[in-house]
Amino acid sequence: MCRIGFRSIFPSRARVFRALCICAAGLAAPAARAAAAPLPVLRQLRVEVALRDSSGQPVRRAMAVTVEHAPGATHPPFVLLLHGRPAGVSARRRMGLVQFPAAQDWLAGLGYFVVVPTRVGYGITGGPDVEATGPCGDKDFARGMAAVVTQTRQLLHSLQARYPAVDWSRGLVLGDSTGGIAALAVAAARLPGVRGVIDISAGDGGDSVHHPYQPCGAWRMARTLGAYGRRARVPALWMYSRNDGFWGRVWPRRWFDAYVDAGGSARFVELPADKNNGHFIFTRNLPDWQPGFIAFAAGLGLP
Q1: Distance, CA of 133 to CA of 284 (rounded, Å)
Q2: Which of 164, 165, 262, 273 could cysteine-pair with 226, CB 3.0–4.6 Å?
Q3: pTM, whole model, 2 decimals?
Q4: Distance between CA atoms of 2 and 23, rounded to whole angstroms?
């Protein structure tokens, strides 16, 4: 009998197909199946969050969340993955249920309880764009990131009640692109249990087609990150590909300097160039950033 190792209330055809392929391979090769690691446990759920939009109006949504962990994991630490932000409204709606299959499986295999929210304003969670930061010439990054912090705080509080066996006193926040800036905002908010944050390709206001390497409000971003650095009390790992088509090589270093000059504890790692645009290295080339993650986590006593 072939059993798929997860339950989904929001079916993901790609994940189901992957699991079916694994099962089919196991039926065809019993010896290989016996030697293979068991499939991770994957579930989707809804978490109620309440916040305000940019005009101050109350917003309540049932946020879609994916959780993944190894079968039989006992008291695992957590890692929260924060997604980025496509530029257009239609692109944000098309995000569906956000998942990072390869990264999730790898992190679960290390021993983490992996949490991936689809935030308000994106994909199947829907709702207004509570993370809007304003037009290119008048960016307010802190306003948009405050909405992410509010959702993250409520999400972790809710999951603690649902999954008491998880070690919520030991966790990491990893963000990709705009999610990386959000991870630094979470560090500045000093949420309980967060031991460190990792940002990969972090930034906002970029356009690799119309103004590559010149993101909107870049100096305002530096000031925002300086404010986060002053408040943060946990270490941060910054990782950027050398051919990031959104930020280039100059602005990430300036943003990093603003963060550490203000008092933030952080390390900068330049990753190799990745294909035509290294901005997407988080999902396209895991082997390039995994060693940095492992070294950073080990320094915190985490897997």
Answers
A1: 27
A2: 262
A3: 0.88
A4: 6
